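Milestone M4 deliverable, item 7.
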Amino acid sequence: MEKLIMLKYGELSTKKDNIGLFLKKLKDNITRILTEEEKVYFDKGRMFIESPNIDNTIKKVSKVFGIHELVMAYKIDTDYDNLKETVKSLVSELNFKTFKVVTKRSDKTYPKTSMEISKEIGGVVLKNVPNIKVDVNNPEITINIEIRSNATYIYMESIKGLGGYPVGTMGKGLLMLSGGIDSPVSGYLAMKRGIKLECIYFESPPHTSLEAKEKVLSLARILKTYNIDMKVHIINLTKIQEAIYKNIPHEYLITILRRMMYRISAIVASKSNCKVLINGESIGQVASQTLTSMSAINEVVNIPVIRPVACFDKLEIIELAKKINTYETSILPFEDCCTIFVPQHPVINPTKEKCLEYEELIPYKELIYEAVKTHEVINIKDENKYEDLL
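Output delivered:
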């Protein structure tokens, strides 16, 4: 009897003709976080991992998108007497009052049907464990049996996976990572839909601190545990931000600043082969996130902009931030570009005409060119390899 990990795909199983591409990417993503002692392989609708340390491997693989469920399974040869003896041995170590048996028979040449196997194995359990009964609706344990051509698998324990698509199946996106609560959550949700991330962060020294930058890099490291590796583009926005502050009516400061950030992000995305911009904007949360403001800001770029938390309320975003372990880092008290020089009464219904008029007051094209040309790139790849997964 061999103990291993069985992976169930969930949503991926709906891909039909394209499923091979998704499964290959899933296998590649898993392989990249495994050691030489851990082996992953396919077997008709399932993926399996052999490991000398099952618990350790599960901790790592549970951070991989594209997996519906992780199952700790026992692999035996396809012999009926061996199946009965193995089930007897496994249930004798458990404490339960109700159970049921579920059998799947992918090997249709097997001489017994799924119903027959479930009924007979249920009888074996009833004979060998005192004071228990069958409950098909709400059992304490479910004994799952899968009969395959090369082996039989038995399992009772499972862990819910992250679901979604394997990261990279949908191409790359550029996450506008601010250091707040919302943008890391948006990055997580984008990765869940198969988007591989790069990040862009805007700093404005000396108005923003080195601690603020390190805070963002810490968030990128957390997101990297789902993304395999992470590249962060650091843009110095000081000259642009000071030019805006000195020359543009203050109620339009944030609107014009966001338009500059979008323009820069679109350029960096194009150079990095990112197909979309991703950010943490949530409708109505601040002045720059009214529908009118978002429209006025968005119109400066042609690249699609995805806002995964646009329709979430703040409590929902916080709950998810806590779940993915970004919340405590996000609330560290270091200001980013969008929280300095905040006007007392920012415009909530900016017009395109006013934006274009005010932008003519500064040499923004030259400033954007310089910011992009001189920007810093940090690769978060092999730092503390895999320890942060555990």
